[in-house]
Amino acid sequence: MNIKRLFNFIGIIFILGGAAFLMAPTAINSYSAARTDQLIADFNSAVERETSAGGNGILDKLKADIADYNTALITNGQDIKDPFFYEGESLDLTRYGFEDNMFGYIEIPKLKLSLGIFMGAAEENMTKGAVHLDKTSIPVGGESTNSVIAAHRGAGRYGDMFRNIQRLEAGDSVFIVNPWERLEYRVTEIFTIEPDDINKILIQEGKDMLTLVSCHPYGSSRYRYIVYCEREADANE
After folding, report:
1. pLDDT per residue over 34-47, tens digit each?
2. What's this model's pTM, rounded to 2 decimal places?
3. Which end of the chain is least crowded, N or C, by CB within 10 Å?
4. Which CATH number do you get for residue 13?
């Protein structure tokens, strides 16, 4: 191979490498979206299956156990360490027929985003979607509840997830779909905290809240980006 051909060959390699680099985020997001769609379809099928089977006993048991769990958080307090890397799971949903330990999904219309919600911030769960942090209210709504949902910000193989969370503004809608209903929350406040500032994600008496958490700034885990959301009074009735 002469010098000219060698340089041409190297040039082609750089062009192909650059094209692959530019296309990678799109491919990752497409794969992530397809996987999320399948997870949501599987979840909806599991709910339909349990609803139509045997008097709906499993879902009734799950609802009762969630009520007990959320009440215990108010009565006994919350033992949270880091409001992001908390890996424990509040309930083992496989006992109730949800094999992926997926409780439902979050929808954020402004970001054109849907993500499954998995129990516990274990890394395996965080590669699949958003996670519910143990020791916070399970997202079924209700007075004196605060469900904390965390996700990555588009790091590497995970797709966008909460990458564009900073685009949310006060008044934007965020929906939680659980096995029984679709709950609508509105963004009320946005701020950043230190990773160990757990007081900012605790239950606030009398409020029905959803708190979104991700790392900040993008590409760093130095801080946590916090989005408070609340249900309007008439939505709780």
Report:
1. 888 888 888 888 88
2. 0.82
3. C
4. 2.40.260.10
